[in-house]
Amino acid sequence: MYFQLLSTLEAPDRRKDSHHDRMLPYRRLQQYAITISIISVVYNGLEGGVSIGFGAESKSRSLIFFGIQSGVEVISALLVVWRFRKIVKPGEERGTALSSKDLQFEKSGTLGIGILLIALGIGTVSSSIAILVLHREPDTSNASLIISASALVIMVMIWLPKRYLATALDSSTMRGEAICSLSCIQLTCVLFIGSLIFRVWHGGWWIDGATSMILSVLFGWEGYKMVVWAGSKEFTGGCCQDCRVRPGVEQQVNNDAELGGSTNGNRECDCCSDPEKGSCGGSDTDKSDVCQPDPEVMCRDPFGNVYIPCCQSGSNILGGKCCEQPATNAVIEKSQATIPSQKRISESRDLEKKKSVSCCSDCD
Description:
cytoplasmic vesicle, elongated, 53% helix, mainly alpha, two-stranded antiparallel sheet, single chain, Alpha-lytic protease prodomain-like, monoatomic cation transmembrane transporter activity
């Protein structure tokens, strides 16, 4: 199953926008998500018990904390099982927008895993401070090295399917579980490498604590973003809050080509492209560079109306995107000539100073 999953799931950057373009049916993806999560629960439960047992016997705080970290991963995986416990019938596919019940499950799962990541971050910071202040040396026992080395190999094998499933299922809960697994892998790697370094260089006792502190900030931040995303009014349950499917626009996918846009038109993605620089809003060296709109990607409001290509920033009350990015007078004139009459271009009062233009759809 493991190698079949990795061989059939597409990488995130190559995945099609439509759920119907997946190589595996949604039902099968749900089954894989539950299976890999159950495997994660069983393995991390055993790993945590063994780590705490050896840690208590050898008075190793590192092993005890490692066991607690495994417990966090167990809870996170159980949340995924709870989220996908209701398997769809054969042949059914998830719609572009989740049902209100599934959306609530997704929100609760995302919030729960986000809180777990924050708690793990706080716990790791506290442990790291204690290591640095009290000058605690890494555990160099054979038990510590064997547990951390085996955990690295197995956890990477468990994490890879989660990473792909998060994208294939378009699930923020699954994405959070993948991040949680990655965080555990990173901490395990620090424990293993820190112990090896201390065996050959006693002056490197601080590497374990310092590195763990940096990592804790990173995945603590990921947890914070998940909590904020779960509490957002624009929460859709998708794994990517910057490029998300809008509820109620599933019919727009087939109409995009006819209206002059690409299939990206049904997503709230960055609809600005600079072909030369590959970025939006100019280069890093010259912030006043022109934002070059991509004619193949059109912004849309919830009713399918197309307005001029632009860079996005915020949204109006109806869900349409209000866009604002640097632009020159030439771009403004071109926009005024191509935008439909019911739309409008509002230039800023200090155009010469800011060189900005807003293309709006029903914006005040």
